[in-house]
């Protein structure tokens, strides 16, 4: 073998060794990409978990929409007829809070492909915190319309306290039985906010 041939063989052997070393380093440093099918499956499972809801969530949204509609009706009347600024301001706050919550829960029902409550069908419900001092919504509104002045303020506060207690009861049931995270968060908000307003209304009743 000539010297020239030996040099060529040595150069070829060195080049092969270098290539093997680079291949080994590349294999050890770079992570193996996740197969596309596995990534899609994981995303699908995450989306499904995010939209999970159960029958308790549906009932909570449907019933609380109707309940809030009753509160709005009473609050709007109080804004017009209350004789004290404190009662009028409270009624305005109730309307401002519960209107957007009705829209929020209606959106959930549409997203879940569940029925929206028809006020004409559910307005006379007498269960799930729908009664106030033994009266349904229609009876309560008829009774409230008979009062004026401070007597109106007192009757509004008495009925709204009973109405709020019904909402707290419904919210507490949702907290114990619901599954949807957003519905559970709203139930806690309703429970806490309306308990605060119950205390406020009881204090107002003592001052009138």
What's the short story on this structure?
By secondary structure, the chain is mainly α.
Structure description:
This protein is mainly alpha-helical. It has one domain (55-207): Ferritin, core subunit, four-helix bundle (Ferritin), CATH 1.20.1260. Helix content is 79%, strand content 0%. It is built from eight helices and no strands. It has helices at residues 3-29, 36-50, 55-81, 85-111, 119-122, 137-144, 149-177, 181-207. Residues 57-205 form the DUF305 domain. InterPro entries: DUF305_CopM-like, Ferritin-like, TAT_signal. Residues 24-52 are annotated as: Disordered. Keywords: Signal. This is DUF305 domain-containing protein.
Number of strands: 0
CATH superfamily: Ferritin, core subunit, four-helix bundle
Mean pLDDT: 81
Q: How many distinct helices?
A: 8
Rg, Cα atoms, Å: 33 Å
Secondary structure class reads mainly alpha
Q: Uncertain runs with pLDDT below 50, 5 residues or more? A: 2-28, 41-50, 119-128
Distance between the termini: 118 Å
Shape: elongated
CATH class: Mainly Alpha
Query: What sequence of helices (H) and strands (E) makes up the elements?
Result: HHHHHHHH
Estimate the helix proportion, in percent.
over 70%
Total of domains = 1
Write the layout of secondary structure elements.
Layout: H1 3-29, H2 36-50, H3 55-81, H4 85-111, H5 119-122, H6 137-144, H7 149-177, H8 181-207
Helix pairs in contact: 3-4, 3-7, 4-8, 7-8
